[in-house]
Amino acid sequence: MTGHLNTWTDRSYVVVIGLLACLGIAVLVGPVIVVLMTSFTTSAALKFPPPQLSTQWYVALFDPARSSHIHNAAYNSLWVATLATSLATLLAVPAALAIARLRTAGARALEAAFLAPLILPTLAYGLATLMFFTLLGYRPSLWLLTIGHFIVIAPFVFRTTVASLTQLDPVLLESSAALGAGRLYTFRRITLPLITPGIAAGAFLAFIASLDNVPVSLFLSNARTDMLPIRMWGMIESTLDVRVAAISGVLIASVTVLILVMERLVGLTRRMSG
Amino acid sequence: MAATTADAVVPPVGAPAEAKERIEWRLATPLAFAYMAFFAAPLLLLFWVSFHEDNELTRMGPGQWIRFLSDPFYVGVVWQTILLGIATVLAATLLSYPLALVFYAASPLARKLLLFIIVLPLLTSVVVRTFAWIAILSREGVINNTLIALGITTAPVPLLQTQYGLIIALMQIEMPLMLLPLLAVVQGIDRSLVEASRSLGASHWRTFFRVLLPLSVPGWIAGATLVFASSTTAFISQSVIGGGRLVYLPSVIWQQAMVISDWPFAAVASVMLLISVLTGILALGAIGRLIDPRSK
After folding, report:
1. Is the pLDDT of residue B19 over 60?
2. Domain range holding A255?
3. pLDDT digits (tens, 9 = 90+) for B125-167
């Protein structure tokens, strides 16, 4: 009796959830495919589907004479992302070591403070850094951008390092100590090798977050310190330059390769979903 | 014999353990100082600047706050920003939960593929994703060309610079932020609970509403928090897809700070954005405690 009811309602469940999930996948992937196809258009306008295919926008993008501003912005972005990620890793990993295993209220408060940039509106923080550095007498530079980015991306390294430390079996550390190893030796030979994949995943996410950062760069970059996302935004706002599609194509291809490599090396997606 | 040597090696428990804890604490100080100098200090400065009457920051007073809060336009902007965040959370939820349920039932390989599909857009620049939605929503974009080809409309439907267009775009741009914490919680749900519910005669729907939904609420709360915070702050998506007529707090902040150069007023708008996001986060946390059976 209930069996009949179940098959009817169960069928509706499978249909509704299945359709919505398909829509979800289409919505997630669709825009990526649309951008990739648009980047190979012959048209100077954003028509979809493209009337004919060509690589002319990629040729224009890689032309050093025509796209020097874009190259310059990309160079600045990579430089800032590299510095900020190094700084974030150097400072966030020790911080994670210090408080990952502590259950005290002080450690929890510190952890919340270190993770705050992930949920606080970084746009307000971006404006705050502009005011802060201006009142201190500094003009926007790549160094100030590095500091601003470092604050915003440090949580990524901190979070993955804490996660890998809490998954660390304490028995390993105890046996190492029981066998007479010093604390530094245990750290070097046991702890560090086991948390390195977590640190690497966090550093990778931090690097990408810096490369994509808008809220801080929006306020701290100017004509001299142009950053790639801000330059792309300018190109979209002014003429809807199709080279933006070519830049997007390059970024999507690089990120795809990097995700696959990081997945192989450190199990990236597993670390991102908790 | 062995016991005595071990006793000699292992230090007494009391004082050295405390010393050890002190050393570990010190490892956090570089980051803590960096955050005080370059995170807490600028944010405190923002509050301080917002209580200035003039741009030269010479006279203190609540004038800018009164100007902001007594102007129906700016109060409206705050509400619109919060509503945009809520709408994006709801839209993202509508598609995220079915994906999470499919993920729950999927094979390890399908799970890996699904995670890749979620992570790829997340790690692709927000500007790229925003640009994609221009190509989709514009007059000659994907949606309009499809509608015209199917004969549903004859003239292009305006989608860019509308609230619906913006919410759809933000839903896709922010959805991975909801999915990742949700999937993390969902994959930890004990399968025997679902099997028990099914074998006791509950339908799939009933199993979802009575077992999977309540157990996955913490993941949803975490994801909804990120989506709310991110969509209310998404300046470029809001201004490019929303256009000039739809005004949200981020564009007020940018206009006042970078175009008009009215720092105190921009600071007021920024503090309002901080307050709005924090209120949203606290509200979501309260909802979570209300629904989550384990917190009772």
Report:
1. no
2. 67-272
3. 899 999 999 889 988 888 888 888 888 888 888 888 899 999 9
B59-110 per-position pLDDT tens digit = 898 999 999 999 999 999 999 999 999 999 999 999 999 999 999 989 999 9
Average pLDDT score over chain B: 88
- The CATH number that domain B63-123+172-295 falls under is 1.10.3720.10
Quick one: tokens of B233? Answer: 């702050």
Q: Are B68 and B269 in contact (CB under 8 A)?
A: yes
Number of domains, chain A? 1
Q: Give pLDDT tens digits for A13-64.
A: 889 999 999 999 999 999 999 999 989 988 877 777 788 888 889 998 998 8
For chains A and B, CB pairs below 8 A equal 283
A36 domain-assigned: no
Query: Within a domain: residue A47?
Result: no
Q: Which residue among A12, A117, A248 sits closest to B39, beta carbon to beta carbon?
A: A117
Write the CATH number for A120.
1.10.3720.10
Which CB contacts under 8 angstroms, 24+ apart, belong to B37-44? B38/A129, B38/A132, B38/A147, B38/A148, B38/A150, B38/A151, B39/A116, B39/A117, B39/A125, B39/A151, B41/A132, B42/A125, B42/A128, B42/A129, B42/A131, B42/A132, B43/A124, B43/A125, B43/A128, B43/B274
Residues of A in contact with B201 (CB under 8 A): 2, 6
Answer yes or no: is A26 within a domain. no
Q: How confident is the model at residue B11 (pLDDT cuts 50, 70, 90)?
A: very low
A215·B31 Cβ contact <8 A: no
| ipTM for the assembly | 0.90
CB contact under 8 A, B226 and A118: yes
The answer to whether A273 and B184 are in contact (CB under 8 A) is: yes
Contact A17 B129 (CB under 8 A): no
Per-residue pLDDT, B140: 82
Domain membership flag for residue A25: no
Those of residues 184-223 in B touching chain A at CB distance below 8 A are: 184-185, 187, 201, 203-205, 208
Q: Cβ of A151 and B204 within 8 Å?
A: no
Q: Where are the domains of chain B?
A: 63-123+172-295
Q: List Cβ neighbours of B130 (8 Å cut-off, separation of 6 or more).
A: A236, B169, B173, B236, B237, B240, B241
Residue contact A98–B25, C-beta within 8 A: yes
Q: Closest to B98 (Cβ–Cβ): which among A21, A110, A127?
A: A21
